[in-house]
């Protein structure tokens, strides 16, 4: 078969999960994308996605071979249309940071009457890792600066700074449109974003959720790879904008926080890039 076969994966087939080897050699088109649906924990070590047009399930998008599709069918217990399947294989649209893909295969759970636990954020990795006692947290925007930590009396929670992290495959963009201007986000692109890596405990999450507007569905927690001191760290926490807009100029006080937090910490080249992009995109010159 010569036509491209696209599949959206959201559980054990994702990067670093137990069945990722089944996608070895496949082309990954996006690591942070979504499709309409709702996610549950089956309690058997894998999640189940069910249809729901009003919610989102996050996962990864791959271009695979016909042989790999057959392997996935076996894994998911799919025997064909109108058969007694564990998962059905349906076609849906998948949305990345930049484009929409149609005609993507998605495996959905057949037994919707089974009692299962809803997975918050629609993200299996969040479900797996957010309860860890310790996490690495990659801050690329205003959380590089500690002024608001101190004002909120939580600065003691963010004292353990591990170093400067580099998130390859991302670009910084101001895609969150707030009442007073844009807020920072990272989107998948052939670029690198630098930021501050903290070692945090679960105690920090309630503050970060409030600050990032997680309950209001402004940002969502996500897990990415970062490079730090020449070593790759996997499944590092960060926050991504959910509904991305065209870039909007940030307010000056917010841009100043980013530059102040970055100065002397990220590479000189990246710091100059932050300033240059503020000017090129928005004609902003921000003093710190």
TrEMBL record:
This is Gamma-glutamylcyclotransferase family protein. One of its GO terms (cellular component) is cytosol. The active site is at residue 76. Residues 7-125 form the Gamma-glutamylcyclotransferase AIG2-like domain. InterPro entries: AIG2-like_dom, GGACT, GGCT-like, GGCT-like_sf. One of its GO terms (molecular function) is gamma-glutamylaminecyclotransferase activity. Gene3D superfamilies: Gamma-glutamyl cyclotransferase-like. SUPFAM superfamilies: Gamma-glutamyl cyclotransferase-like. CDD domains: GGCT_like (cd06661). It comes from Metabacillus litoralis. Belongs to the gamma-glutamylcyclotransferase family.
């Amino acid at each position: 078969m010569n036509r491209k076969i696209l599949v959206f994966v959201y559980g054990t087939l994702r990067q670093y999960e137990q069945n990722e080897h089944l996608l070895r050699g496949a082309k990954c088109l996006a690591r942070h994308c979504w499709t309409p649906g709702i996610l549950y924990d089956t309690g058997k070590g894998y999640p189940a996605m069910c249809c729901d047009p009003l919610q989102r399930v996050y996962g990864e998008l791959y271009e695979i071979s016909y042989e790999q599709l057959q392997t996935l069918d076996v894994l998911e217990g799919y025997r064909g249309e109108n058969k007694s399947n564990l998962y059905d294989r349906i076609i849906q649209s998948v949305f990345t940071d930049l484009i929409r893909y149609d005609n993507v295969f998605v495996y959905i759970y057949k037994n919707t009457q089974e009692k299962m636990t809803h997975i918050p954020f629609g993200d299996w990795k969040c479900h797996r890792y957010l309860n860890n006692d310790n996490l690495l947290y990659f801050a690329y925007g205003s959380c590089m600066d500690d002024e608001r930590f101190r004002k909120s009396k939580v600065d003691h929670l963010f004292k353990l700074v591990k170093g400067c992290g580099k998130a390859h495959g991302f670009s910084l963009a101001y895609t969150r449109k707030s009442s007073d201007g844009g807020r920072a986000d990272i989107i998948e692109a052939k670029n690198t974003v630098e930021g501050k890596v903290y070692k945090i405990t679960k105690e920090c999450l309630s503050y970060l959720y409030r600050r990032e507007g997680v309950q209001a569905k402004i940002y969502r927690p996500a897990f990415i790879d970062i490079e730090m001191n020449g070593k790759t760290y996997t499944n590092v926490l960060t926050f991504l904008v959910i509904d991305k807009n065209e870039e909007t100029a940030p307010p000056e006080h917010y841009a100043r926080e980013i530059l102040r937090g970055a100065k002397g910490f990220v590479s000189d080249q990246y710091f100059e890039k932050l300033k240059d992009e503020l000017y090129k995109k928005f004609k902003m010159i921000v003093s710190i």
